[in-house]
Amino acid sequence: MNLTERAKKIQCVIFDVDGVLTNGTLIFGSQGEELKSFHVHDGFGIQLLQKSGIQVGIITARPSAIVTERMKQLGVTLVYQGGLDKLASYEDIKHKLKLTDAEIAYIGDDLFDLPILKRVGLSATPGNAPEVMHSHVHFITKKDGGMGAARELCELIMIAQDTYSLAIQNYLPAEYADLNL
Question: Which of 45, 55, 116, 166 is the most exposed place for a label (fewest CB within 10 A)?
């Protein structure tokens, strides 16, 4: 099955956080607080994906108030943090949404993500993920984690499902409404 055929079946996209929605750098303030940097392109891609009818979730091993706040801003309610057994979180999402593996996409950047990546219908990893990850996924983004990789996956799915043009239509000035995007 080719990438487009896989993407057409997707009803839910699950994102890892560190190394996917962020660049993977851990920054700590002087009081020990953890800071993270999220790229606006990734956030907007997630919002477009949701507007096109796709469910969105995150699974991350590191609990973070910053992640909670960012997901609240994006309207993501399937938020799983602090569990080292990512596969259990994945199974919970799959059960809640009554989906099959083939209807779920997952993007992760490291070995902890492999159990999910090997199960889903569409697996992806950022371009800057460790080389070992490249042979275990269906799609390697051109963009790095935290720098547009998530947006790239969102657009791939929306284009395959023919929802991208409609999702961005309201953001285009009238003179560009007839662009074939």
Answer: 166
